[in-house]
Every structure is written in C-alpha cells, then in structure tokens.
Design a protein that fits this description.
The chain is α/β, with parallel strands linked by helices and about 250 residues long. It has helices at about 25-40, 90-105, 140-145, 160-170, 190-205, 210-215, 215-230; strands spanning about 1-5, 15-20, 40-50, 70-75, 80-85, 110-120, 130-135, 155, 175-180, 240-245. The longest helix is centred in the middle third of the chain and has 17 residues, at about 90-105. This is 3-isopropylmalate dehydratase.
Length: about 250
C-alpha cells in the first residue's frame, strides 16, 4: 500500500510540481535538489510505500531525520517538488505512481516529469538538448515555451515512466522533460539545461543555475554513490528515456 502522508499545512494556487526521482545522469534529482535548496522550500509531506526501503535520511548541520521520498512546497512561487534520495524499485513503482498522481490531482498541480536520455558526446562544447512529451493538454505548454518535440520514437521507463503513464490514464495535464545526459555519471550540465530550458519558463520561476556547472565536480562526488546504485539496479528501476529501436 502506498500513500502520501502530509506533515505540514501549505497553501498553493494551481502549482507546478517538479519530479526529481533518480535516473540516468541523476538529472532530475540534481535539478530538483537545486530548486529545494535555492528556494529553501518547506518539507510538507512524505511518500510511504511497502516497496520502498525503510530508511532515514539526515543532512549535515541538521538534527532532523526524514523519510527517503519527500514533497516540498514554496507558497510564494506556487511550486512543489518531489525529492527522492533512493531509487524507487519496480515492485513499488505502480502503487507509488498511483499514490503520487492522486496527490497531484488533489493539489490541482501541473506535474513536470524529468528524465535523462543516455548519450555520449565527446565534444566539450556540446550543449545537451532538451525535448518534451505531454499528457492531457500538456502539449500546449511545451509549444508555448518553445520546447522541441522528440527527435525519434521512444519510451520513458522506470518510475518516472509509471508517473507519466498514470497521468495519461487520468487525463491529467502534465509535461515530461527529457535531456541528453551522461549514461554513467551524474550530469549537472544536463540538469542546468532542464532548469534553464524547461522548468524555469514553465514554472515561471527564476533560479540561479551557473553554480551547477561551476561546482560540477563537487556535485558529481556527492551524487556518485547513488549513481553507482542506479547502475546496479535493473533498467525498470531507473528513470530514463530510450529510443524504441532498442526494443526492436
């Protein structure tokens, strides 16, 4: 059984929810962690699910122990964030997606789902490309903000794919943002593109992102252990977008 357990009251009006589950390049997690930190967002809820490890997360210079999957709110910006410090395994993915989607509907939120598209580019000047997919009326949001359509047919997998699937089944207006990312290591540069090209304009927020590149090595070191766990997990447990030709 999965449920969202609210821990604090909050008041937002038609918010945007940014989803940051771990996946390829940890692009969604890095982007969402950055939002939570930069805006000092308030911890308002946790996601409880039988398939999630029963562990406690703590942070530096803070006594508070928290569950591994949490929801944050910024009332001033009408912004919500789903932050996860563990992978969501395939056993839990369906119930997890149902529970989170029900909460998103109750909050009258527009979800932004984030995925990495594994690519290897040796050109150091290459800027990772961002494209979008949509559920409900989400295509109009992508068109309005100049986010490109996918370059080829593909599939969004892992728990993020389950969330997009649930949004589609419920005819929920949502947006999936996909960015080219390193398939092996945490990729702060790709996360910066997600923020600059997708999250900022769609959520109508202004967040500093240059430090994601300036502190890239430090961020990689901080996230490397989680990235290694993601590599060891099955593909079903890693949020990512892949071309359909891989399944032919």
């Amino acid at each position: 059984m999965a449920r969202v357990r609210e821990r604090a009251e909050f008041d937002v009006d038609e918010p945007v929810l940014v989803e940051g589950l771990p996946g390829v390049g940890l692009v969604g997690k890095i982007a969402t962690d950055h939002l939570v930190d930069e805006f000092d967002m308030t911890y308002v809820a946790s996601v409880d699910c039988d398939g999630l490890p029963e562990v406690a997360i703590y942070d530096e210079d803070d006594y508070t122990a928290r569950p591994p999957v949490r929801l944050y709110a910024d009332e001033e910006r009408d912004l919500l964030a789903l932050q996860a410090d563990i992978p969501v395994n395939r056993v839990a993915a369906a119930e997890f997606a149902d529970s989170v989607t029900d909460w998103v509907v109750d909050a009258d939120a527009t979800p932004l789902y984030l995925s990495g598209f594994p690519t290897q580019n040796e050109d150091p000047s290459h800027v990772p490309e961002v494209f979008g997919v949509a559920t409900g009326d989400g295509a109009s949001i992508l068109e309005a903000h100049g986010v490109d359509t996918p370059p080829e047919q593909g599939v969004v997998g892992g728990p993020t794919g389950a969330l997009v699937n649930r949004a589609d089944v419920n005819d929920l207006t949502g947006v999936g943002l996909v960015v080219e990312s390193d398939p092996q290591f945490p990729d702060p540069a790709a996360s910066k593109q997600l923020l600059d090209k997708g999250i900022e304009p769609i959520a109508d927020v202004d967040v500093e992102t240059d430090t994601l590149v300036e502190q890239a090595e430090q961020i990689r070191e901080q996230k490397q252990q989680l990235a290694e766990r993601m590599q060891q997990a099955s593909e079903e447990e890693s949020s990512q977008a892949k071309p359909m030709r891989m399944f032919e």
